[in-house]
Protein backbone atom coordinates (compact mmCIF):
# COMPACT_ATOMS: atom_id res chain seq x y z
CA UNK A 1 0.00 0.00 0.00
CA UNK A 2 1.20 3.51 -0.80
CA UNK A 3 -0.34 6.98 -1.13
CA UNK A 4 -1.07 6.54 -4.85
CA UNK A 5 -3.05 3.35 -4.27
CA UNK A 6 -4.80 4.90 -1.26
CA UNK A 7 -5.88 7.87 -3.38
CA UNK A 8 -7.25 5.62 -6.13
CA UNK A 9 -9.10 3.33 -3.73
CA UNK A 10 -10.75 6.27 -1.94
CA UNK A 11 -12.36 7.60 -5.13
CA UNK A 12 -15.99 8.63 -5.11
CA UNK A 13 -17.89 11.14 -7.26
CA UNK A 14 -18.33 14.56 -5.68
CA UNK A 15 -21.38 16.61 -6.64
CA UNK A 16 -21.24 19.44 -4.12
CA UNK A 17 -18.29 21.83 -4.04
CA UNK A 18 -17.33 24.88 -1.98
CA UNK A 19 -16.87 28.26 -3.64
CA UNK A 20 -13.08 27.92 -3.42
CA UNK A 21 -11.23 28.47 -6.67
CA UNK A 22 -8.41 26.13 -7.62
CA UNK A 23 -5.02 27.85 -7.94
CA UNK A 24 -3.81 28.09 -11.53
CA UNK A 25 -0.64 26.23 -10.61
CA UNK A 26 -2.77 23.27 -9.48
CA UNK A 27 -4.80 23.37 -12.70
CA UNK A 28 -1.58 23.34 -14.71
CA UNK A 29 -0.30 20.35 -12.73
CA UNK A 30 -3.56 18.48 -13.39
CA UNK A 31 -3.23 19.12 -17.13
CA UNK A 32 0.44 18.16 -17.05
CA UNK A 33 -0.47 14.87 -15.39
CA UNK A 34 -3.21 14.28 -17.97
CA UNK A 35 -0.66 14.72 -20.75
CA UNK A 36 1.63 12.19 -19.11
CA UNK A 37 -0.92 9.42 -19.73
CA UNK A 38 -0.22 6.61 -22.17
CA UNK A 39 -1.21 7.38 -25.76
CA UNK A 40 -1.55 5.07 -28.75
CA UNK A 41 1.38 5.38 -31.18
CA UNK A 42 2.24 8.74 -29.58
CA UNK A 43 -0.74 10.28 -31.41
CA UNK A 44 -2.05 12.19 -28.37
CA UNK A 45 -5.42 12.22 -30.12
CA UNK A 46 -7.35 14.33 -27.64
CA UNK A 47 -7.76 17.89 -26.43
CA UNK A 48 -8.84 19.35 -23.10
CA UNK A 49 -10.87 22.55 -22.89
CA UNK A 50 -10.87 24.38 -19.56
CA UNK A 51 -14.07 26.32 -18.94
CA UNK A 52 -13.68 29.42 -16.78
CA UNK A 53 -16.32 31.68 -18.36
CA UNK A 54 -19.29 31.69 -15.92
CA UNK A 55 -21.84 31.99 -18.73
CA UNK A 56 -20.36 29.06 -20.63
CA UNK A 57 -20.41 26.96 -17.46
CA UNK A 58 -24.02 27.93 -16.87
CA UNK A 59 -24.96 26.97 -20.42
CA UNK A 60 -23.11 23.66 -20.15
CA UNK A 61 -24.91 22.89 -16.89
CA UNK A 62 -28.25 23.33 -18.66
CA UNK A 63 -27.19 21.29 -21.69
CA UNK A 64 -25.95 18.53 -19.37
CA UNK A 65 -29.39 18.12 -17.85
CA UNK A 66 -29.49 21.01 -15.36
CA UNK A 67 -26.70 19.56 -13.24
CA UNK A 68 -25.79 22.38 -10.86
CA UNK A 69 -22.30 21.06 -10.15
CA UNK A 70 -21.36 21.64 -13.80
CA UNK A 71 -21.68 25.34 -13.03
CA UNK A 72 -20.76 25.42 -9.35
CA UNK A 73 -17.24 24.04 -8.99
CA UNK A 74 -13.64 25.15 -8.79
CA UNK A 75 -12.82 24.30 -12.40
CA UNK A 76 -14.49 22.50 -15.29
CA UNK A 77 -12.77 20.49 -18.00
CA UNK A 78 -14.12 19.08 -21.26
CA UNK A 79 -12.23 16.15 -22.78
CA UNK A 80 -12.47 15.82 -26.55
CA UNK A 81 -11.58 13.24 -29.16
CA UNK A 82 -9.33 15.21 -31.50
CA UNK A 83 -7.87 14.29 -34.88
CA UNK A 84 -7.98 17.85 -36.22
CA UNK A 85 -4.34 18.63 -35.48
CA UNK A 86 -3.25 15.37 -37.07
CA UNK A 87 -4.83 16.30 -40.39
CA UNK A 88 -3.19 19.71 -40.11
CA UNK A 89 0.17 18.07 -39.42
CA UNK A 90 -0.19 15.78 -42.43
CA UNK A 91 -1.19 18.74 -44.61
CA UNK A 92 2.19 20.31 -43.87
CA UNK A 93 3.73 17.29 -45.60
CA UNK A 94 1.27 17.29 -48.49
CA UNK A 95 -0.38 14.04 -47.35
CA UNK A 96 -4.11 13.34 -47.12
CA UNK A 97 -4.78 11.07 -44.10
CA UNK A 98 -8.58 11.34 -44.06
CA UNK A 99 -9.03 7.67 -44.96
CA UNK A 100 -7.33 6.89 -41.67
CA UNK A 101 -8.78 9.66 -39.49
CA UNK A 102 -12.29 8.75 -40.61
CA UNK A 103 -11.87 5.09 -39.63
CA UNK A 104 -13.41 3.37 -36.61
CA UNK A 105 -9.93 2.51 -35.33
CA UNK A 106 -8.87 6.17 -35.31
CA UNK A 107 -12.01 7.17 -33.45
CA UNK A 108 -11.42 4.44 -30.87
CA UNK A 109 -7.84 5.61 -30.42
CA UNK A 110 -9.02 9.16 -29.75
CA UNK A 111 -11.65 7.95 -27.28
CA UNK A 112 -9.15 5.81 -25.40
CA UNK A 113 -6.47 8.51 -25.37
CA UNK A 114 -8.97 11.01 -23.94
CA UNK A 115 -10.16 8.58 -21.26
CA UNK A 116 -6.61 7.74 -20.17
CA UNK A 117 -5.71 11.43 -19.92
CA UNK A 118 -8.89 12.13 -17.95
CA UNK A 119 -8.23 9.42 -15.42
CA UNK A 120 -4.71 10.75 -14.85
CA UNK A 121 -6.26 14.18 -14.27
CA UNK A 122 -8.81 12.72 -11.86
CA UNK A 123 -6.26 10.88 -9.75
CA UNK A 124 -4.01 13.93 -9.66
CA UNK A 125 -6.85 16.20 -8.56
CA UNK A 126 -7.89 13.76 -5.83
CA UNK A 127 -4.31 13.50 -4.61
CA UNK A 128 -4.48 17.27 -4.02
CA UNK A 129 -7.52 16.91 -1.79
CA UNK A 130 -9.92 17.92 -4.57
CA UNK A 131 -13.03 16.05 -5.65
CA UNK A 132 -14.15 15.26 -9.19
CA UNK A 133 -17.23 14.16 -11.05
CA UNK A 134 -17.31 12.93 -14.65
CA UNK A 135 -20.10 14.52 -16.69
CA UNK A 136 -21.45 12.43 -19.56
CA UNK A 137 -24.48 14.72 -19.81
CA UNK A 138 -22.68 17.06 -22.18
CA UNK A 139 -23.47 14.45 -24.85
CA UNK A 140 -27.17 15.25 -24.45
CA UNK A 141 -26.84 17.96 -27.08
CA UNK A 142 -23.39 17.92 -28.66
CA UNK A 143 -24.39 20.23 -31.49
CA UNK A 144 -24.92 23.09 -29.06
CA UNK A 145 -21.87 22.08 -26.99
CA UNK A 146 -19.70 22.18 -30.12
CA UNK A 147 -21.12 25.57 -31.06
CA UNK A 148 -20.47 26.87 -27.56
CA UNK A 149 -16.87 25.59 -27.54
CA UNK A 150 -16.28 26.37 -31.23
CA UNK A 151 -14.79 22.96 -31.94
CA UNK A 152 -13.60 22.34 -35.53
CA UNK A 153 -14.16 19.31 -37.75
CA UNK A 154 -12.59 16.11 -36.32
CA UNK A 155 -13.12 17.24 -32.72
CA UNK A 156 -15.91 15.76 -30.56
CA UNK A 157 -16.46 16.64 -26.88
CA UNK A 158 -16.80 13.32 -25.03
CA UNK A 159 -17.39 14.17 -21.38
CA UNK A 160 -16.75 16.83 -18.81
CA UNK A 161 -15.07 16.78 -15.43
CA UNK A 162 -16.15 18.99 -12.56
CA UNK A 163 -13.30 19.61 -10.11
CA UNK A 164 -13.37 21.42 -6.80
CA UNK A 165 -13.05 21.37 -3.05
CA UNK A 166 -15.68 18.95 -1.70
CA UNK A 167 -18.49 20.45 0.31
CA UNK A 168 -19.67 16.99 1.26
CA UNK A 169 -18.51 13.46 0.56
CA UNK A 170 -20.95 10.64 -0.08
CA UNK A 171 -20.23 7.13 1.09
CA UNK A 172 -18.20 5.18 -1.45
CA UNK A 173 -20.33 2.87 -3.59
CA UNK A 174 -19.25 -0.76 -3.28
CA UNK A 175 -17.93 -2.14 -6.56
CA UNK A 176 -18.78 -5.46 -8.16
CA UNK A 177 -17.01 -8.51 -6.73
CA UNK A 178 -13.59 -9.01 -8.25
CA UNK A 179 -14.68 -12.47 -9.40
CA UNK A 180 -17.21 -10.84 -11.74
CA UNK A 181 -14.78 -8.32 -13.25
CA UNK A 182 -11.49 -10.21 -13.39
CA UNK A 183 -10.96 -13.22 -15.67
CA UNK A 184 -7.71 -15.16 -15.99
CA UNK A 185 -6.56 -16.54 -19.35
CA UNK A 186 -10.07 -16.64 -20.76
CA UNK A 187 -13.53 -15.19 -20.20
CA UNK A 188 -15.28 -17.31 -17.59
CA UNK A 189 -18.87 -18.03 -18.65
CA UNK A 190 -20.20 -19.74 -15.54
CA UNK A 191 -23.66 -18.17 -15.40
CA UNK A 192 -24.67 -19.96 -12.22
CA UNK A 193 -21.69 -18.48 -10.41
CA UNK A 194 -22.32 -15.09 -12.03
CA UNK A 195 -25.95 -15.01 -10.93
CA UNK A 196 -24.99 -16.01 -7.40
CA UNK A 197 -22.42 -13.20 -7.25
CA UNK A 198 -24.92 -10.71 -8.64
CA UNK A 199 -27.54 -11.70 -6.06
CA UNK A 200 -25.04 -11.16 -3.27
CA UNK A 201 -23.99 -7.84 -4.78
CA UNK A 202 -27.63 -6.76 -5.13
CA UNK A 203 -28.03 -7.19 -1.38
CA UNK A 204 -24.90 -5.13 -0.71
CA UNK A 205 -26.11 -2.30 -2.96
CA UNK A 206 -29.63 -2.44 -1.54
CA UNK A 207 -28.21 -2.09 1.99
CA UNK A 208 -25.96 0.75 0.79
CA UNK A 209 -28.85 2.77 -0.64
CA UNK A 210 -31.06 2.14 2.39
CA UNK A 211 -28.33 3.40 4.72
CA UNK A 212 -27.46 6.37 2.51
CA UNK A 213 -31.09 7.50 2.08
CA UNK A 214 -32.47 6.49 5.46
CA UNK A 215 -34.46 3.69 3.80
CA UNK A 216 -36.06 6.04 1.25
CA UNK A 217 -34.33 4.30 -1.66
CA UNK A 218 -34.43 0.56 -2.11
CA UNK A 219 -32.65 -0.38 -5.33
CA UNK A 220 -30.46 -3.25 -6.45
CA UNK A 221 -27.61 -3.02 -8.95
CA UNK A 222 -29.17 -5.39 -11.47
CA UNK A 223 -32.43 -3.41 -11.39
CA UNK A 224 -30.56 -0.12 -11.75
CA UNK A 225 -28.54 -1.20 -14.79
CA UNK A 226 -31.60 -2.84 -16.36
CA UNK A 227 -33.58 0.38 -16.01
CA UNK A 228 -30.66 2.43 -17.33
CA UNK A 229 -30.11 0.25 -20.39
CA UNK A 230 -33.71 -0.70 -21.10
CA UNK A 231 -34.19 2.32 -23.35
CA UNK A 232 -31.50 3.62 -25.70
CA UNK A 233 -30.22 7.15 -25.19
CA UNK A 234 -28.62 9.77 -27.44
CA UNK A 235 -29.39 7.89 -30.64
CA UNK A 236 -28.47 11.00 -32.64
CA UNK A 237 -24.79 10.46 -31.79
CA UNK A 238 -23.97 8.08 -34.66
CA UNK A 239 -25.01 10.60 -37.31
CA UNK A 240 -23.59 13.54 -35.39
CA UNK A 241 -20.15 11.96 -35.00
CA UNK A 242 -20.09 11.38 -38.75
CA UNK A 243 -21.00 15.03 -39.29
CA UNK A 244 -17.94 15.92 -37.20
CA UNK A 245 -15.73 14.00 -39.64
CA UNK A 246 -15.40 10.70 -37.81
CA UNK A 247 -16.57 7.24 -38.97
CA UNK A 248 -17.35 8.34 -42.53
List the helices and strands and how they pair.
Blueprint: H1 3-9, H2 24-35, E1 46-51, H3 54-63, H4 68-71, E2 75-82, H5 84-92, H6 98-101, H7 104-127, E3 131-135, H8 142-149, E4 155-164, H9 178-181, H10 191-212, H11 221-230, H12 237-243
Antiparallel strand pairs: 1-2, 2-4, 3-4
Helix pairs in contact: 2-7, 3-8
Could you please describe the fold and organization of this structure?
It is a single chain. By secondary structure, this protein is an alpha+beta fold. 49% of the residues lie in helices and 12% in strands. It has 12 helices and 4 strands; from the N terminus they run ααβααβαααβαβαααα. The protein has helices at residues 3-9, 24-35, 54-63, 68-71, 84-92, 98-101, 104-127, 142-149, 178-181, 191-212, 221-230, 237-243; strands spanning 46-51, 75-82, 131-135, 155-164. A 4-stranded antiparallel sheet has the order 1-2-4-3, sandwiched between helices. α2 packs across α7 (104-127) and α3 runs antiparallel to α8 (142-149). 25% of the residues are buried.
Amino acid sequence: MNTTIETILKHRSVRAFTEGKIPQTDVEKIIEAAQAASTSSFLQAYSIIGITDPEKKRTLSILAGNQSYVEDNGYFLVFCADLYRHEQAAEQHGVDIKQTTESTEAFMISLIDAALAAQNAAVTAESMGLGICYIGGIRNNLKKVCELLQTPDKVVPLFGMAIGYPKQMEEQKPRLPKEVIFHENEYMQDNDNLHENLQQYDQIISDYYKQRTNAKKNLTWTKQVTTTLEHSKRLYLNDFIKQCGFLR
